[in-house]
TrEMBL record:
Residue spans of biased composition, Basic and acidic residues class: 1-27
Pfam families to which the protein is assigned, alphabetical: GCN5L1
Coiled-coil portions: none
Any one GO CC term of the record: BLOC-1 complex
Protein name in UniProt: Biogenesis of lysosome-related organelles complex 1 subunit 1
Similarity-based family: Belongs to the BLOC1S1 family.
Region (Disordered) location: 1-28
Listed GO biological process terms: endosomal transport
Length: 131
């Protein structure tokens, strides 16, 4: 009787150990699967963040290139405006020069008219005294 109880106890102990070992293996497998799913989930987030960063870098480069092109165009426009301003100043200088020349020509014309009238009066006066 005692030996049969001992055998029965040992067989239950063995069954419990096998059951515990099976449950331990299942728990390890479940933990491994959970870990793998968590890592996959995190990797998806990391991959998405990496793609977003890559896209942001590309857009930043494009923005930098656009800003550089805009700066170049702005410089060209400034040069054109400066050239236009210089041309306007030259036109103003030419207009001023033309007005000065016009005033000088009027003065000369007036002087010539006065001299011509005096010459006409002198020649008329000399013609009247000689007759």
């Amino acid at each position: 009787m005692l030996s049969s109880m001992l055998k029965e106890h040992q067989s239950r102990q063995t069954a419990k150990k096998e059951s515990q070992e099976t449950k331990r293996k299942e728990a390890c497998q479940a933990a491994s699967e959970l870990t793998q799913h968590l890592v996959d989930h995190l990797n998806v987030g990391v991959a998405q963040a990496y793609l977003n960063q890559k896209r942001l870098d590309a857009e930043a480069k494009q923005l930098h290139a656009s800003a550089a092109a805009f700066g170049k165009h702005t410089q060209q426009w400034l040069q054109l405006v400066e050239q236009f301003s210089g041309a306007l100043k030259e036109l103003g200088d030419v207009e001023n020069w033309a007005k000065t020349i016009e005033g000088d020509v009027r003065t000369i014309t007036t002087a010539l008219e006065i001299v011509y009238k005096d010459a006409q009066e002198n020649s008329a006066a000399s013609a009247g005294t000689s007759s």
